[in-house]
Amino acid sequence: MTAIPPRLAPLLEQFDFARERLVARMAGPVMDSGDGTDTKVGPMTGEEFRWEPVPNCWSVRPRADGPGPRATLLAGGGAWGRDAASYPHPWPPPFTTIAWRLSHLGEMLALRADHTNGTRALTRDDHPVDADVTDAIAAFDAGAAAWRTALLGADEAALDTVGYCTYPHGSDAEEPFIDIVWWVNQEVLHHGAEIALIRDLYRERAH
Predict the structure, then answer these.
(1) Overall domain count for the chain
(2) Partners of residue 203 on adjacent β-strands
(3) What tens digit of pLDDT does each residue of 111-130 get?
C-alpha cells in the first residue's frame, strides 16, 4: 500500500468519519452524536426509506412502473431504478427520498472507485438499484469501502493528476484528483445531512 500523502490524510479521516456516522445514523443501534458520546437510534424501516414527505418526490421504483413525476428515465440496473432525467434537468429540482439519495451515493462511490483503480468501464446500467433498505445501506458501505481502497492507492503525483479518475458523470476529466476527493467528501457530508434530517422529519411527522 502506498504511504498516505499528507494532503490526503485529513480528507481520508473526514471521509471515514462521515461514512461511519451516516451508516450508524441509518442502521443504529447507536450513533456518534458529534461529541464522542453515543446516541440511540432505531434502524430505518422500508416505509421510512421510501417515504415521500411532499408530493411528486423522486425515488426508486419498480422498472415496470416507469419513471415518476418529472422524471424521464429510471437510472441503474436491475428490477428497480432511480428517477432521473436527461439534461436539462427539471428546475426547481424535485425533492428526493432517502432511497433516492442513498442510491445516488452508493452508485457514485462504486463507479468512481472503478474509474480510479478498477476496470474503468462500469456504467450506471451495471450498478443495481436496491429496493430493500438493508441492501441499500450495505451497497452504500461497499461503495464507500471501494472508494477508500482507491484513495489508498493514490500518491502525491496522482493527487495532482487531471483525469486520474475517469468517472464520466462529473468534472473528473478536468480536475486534479485531490479536488475530486474533496468533492466526494462534500457529497457524502451534504447528502448524509439530508438523510439525517429526513429521518428526523419522519419521526416527528405525526406530532
Answers:
(1) 1
(2) none
(3) 999 999 999 999 999 999 99
- Residue 116 parent element (H or E): helix 98-117
- Give mean pLDDT, residues 146-173: 96
Write out the three cell numbers for 180.
475530486
Q: What is the CATH number of the domain that holds 133?
A: 1.20.120
DSSP 202: H
d(CA 4, CA 21): 22
Q: Per DSSP, what are the bridge partners of residue 61? A: 81
Predicted TM-score of the model (pTM):
0.94
- Say how far apart CA 54 and CA 49 lie, in whole Å: 14
Q: Which of 92, 133, 104, 124 is nearest to 192 (CA)?
A: 104
For residue range 42-72, list pLDDT tens digits in order: 899 999 999 999 999 999 999 999 999 999 9
Taking CA atoms, 111 is separated from 58, 118, 139, in Å, by 21, 9, 12
